[in-house]
């Protein structure tokens, strides 16, 4: 899944990569207000998931707020390579002195990652590579080693980028790694007349296996914030609502993602993604369960915890507390393993709630939760 430019920009900002000030709108009137907030002038940029917008007339400079309104009116509704423009981003114009290209991409042939960088940015990198292959540096990146400052320095000097780009190169790698992206690209990364390095345009392609990350960017979440997601966010939980009937809670994004896959593999559908995190306390477990149980689509709940920093006895106490305070009406299948698993299982055994079952394996737990959801 590709992100829109403004979404990539938002991620860059979150990771400390400098970007121009910008706002998004679908209304020409609002475009005028945004331009005013940006200081009068604005670059009006079509938000479509394709490159080459500049050449197609989808990136235009507006000299003042009324020009911004007019330009937004022209750009909105445009067709760019078969993509209809539904929103525009207005960005603060910057004085560009130099344009660079930087990206990290999954390299299928080598089974690793490849950094591609060039001091000839702005145009499509394929064109640069065809015309002047020596102007494009390609450096393999080992996923485990990642892009340290030293590695970023190597990439920058191979491509002839100034040393100030090193910090951006390190942060861009963090975006790729932590957001489960297959591609992160900045084109152009610019040096301004004031000597700042700024990411002027970005492309991020998320790995299709990291579904919970994509939910954050789906139109549904953006347009109608989900009340359960809001409630979970208030309690500091990472929760994403999905379409199914089996509620899922686990600790650690990786474990929760595998749990979703195992549930799907049993022919059931997960109702949500909920990660209670690494050092989860009993309270966090109680909060998490209460969010999931208040979803009417949920027919059964699967709790899958591998105790590392989180001790399973704390998780079990959280489950007991949740069961006692929330008055459980839906079946719960619990699989505890790892740190203090035996104590955790004993706590649940003692409470002996008729709707709480324990399972010893992840597959067994998922199968049982699926069955219970279908008979409920
Ligand atoms: P793309 O054509 O889809 O890749 O869209 P970009 O966002 O990369 O914009 C195309 C080109 O417009 C960039 O390579 C820049 O040369 C230019 N551009 C975009 N924003 C600005 C800006 O704020 N100032 C200046 N001087 N040029 C800009
Ligand atoms: Mn571009």
What does this structure look like?
The chain has 376 residues and is an alpha+beta fold. It has three domains: 21-91, Dna Ligase, domain 1 (2-Layer Sandwich), CATH 3.30.1490; 96-213, ATP-grasp fold, B domain (D-amino Acid Aminotransferase, Chain A, domain 1, 2-Layer Sandwich); 227-375, Succinyl-CoA synthetase domains (Rossmann fold). The chain is 39% helix and 26% strand. It contains 14 helices and 18 strands. It has helices at 5-14, 28-37, 65-75, 125-131, 149-159, 166-178, 211-215, 219-223, 227-234, 253-265, 282-293, 312-326, 341-351, 362-375, and strands spanning 22-25, 42-46, 59-62, 79-80, 83-84, 88-91, 96-107, 112-118, 136-141, 181-192, 197-199, 202-206, 238-241, 246-250, 272-275, 300-307, 332-338, 356-358. Strands 7, 8, 9, 10, 11 and 12 form a six-stranded antiparallel beta sheet that branches. Strands 1-6-2-3 form a four-stranded antiparallel beta sheet, covered by helices on one side. Helix 13 links the parallel strand 17 and strand 18. Helix 2 (28-37) runs antiparallel to helix 3, helix 5 (149-159) packs across helix 6 (166-178) and helix 11 (282-293) crosses helix 12. The longest helix is centred in the last third of the chain and has 15 residues, at 312-326. The radius of gyration is 24 Å and the shape is elongated. The two termini are 35 Å apart. The model is unreliable at 220-224 (pLDDT under 50).
